[in-house]
Amino acid sequence: MIKNRENETALIKIGTDEAILGVEKYFGDESAAAYSATEVVSKLLSPLSEEVLLRQFDKVTDITIKTLIASALCSQLSTRAIPILEDFTKENYAHSLLNLKEDFYACCIINQIDHPKLSEWKQELSEDLLQREGKNNLFSLFSKPAKSEKVGRNEPCPCGSGKKYKKCCG
To answer: Could you tell me which Gene3D superfamilies the record lists for this protein (predicted)?
Structure first.
């Protein structure tokens, strides 16, 4: 079983077909082991990796794991997965996990596939980026530390009591 990040890293470094086949059985677990299996297979760029990911994409029912497998297929630059991924991005995949359209768009561009929806996806991704940047700017407005003015001992207390600061809150 893939128990921790060190095991995952070791399997990736080993990088053999045996490692790929060894973790394939964990895809059906619908647990942390399935996430690790996806991570291992996605990092190993080989024809067997693509085969395993395509095979498991059809078998897995958990939408989160299926989304991770779809992203891994994009990372593998799988041209065989493009029709499957196109259908899947239309479905209700785990949007909160990642933007699969972004991965799919990159896969098409890198593979120089002239997909009819490339310009539409580019527009959507540009709008998403602008929206995220706007949220980041809004966050930065509220994340600045508040300025605190030092109150002198003999100044009126800022709590509004009317007493001197040294006799009240100081």
So the answer is: 3.10.450.50
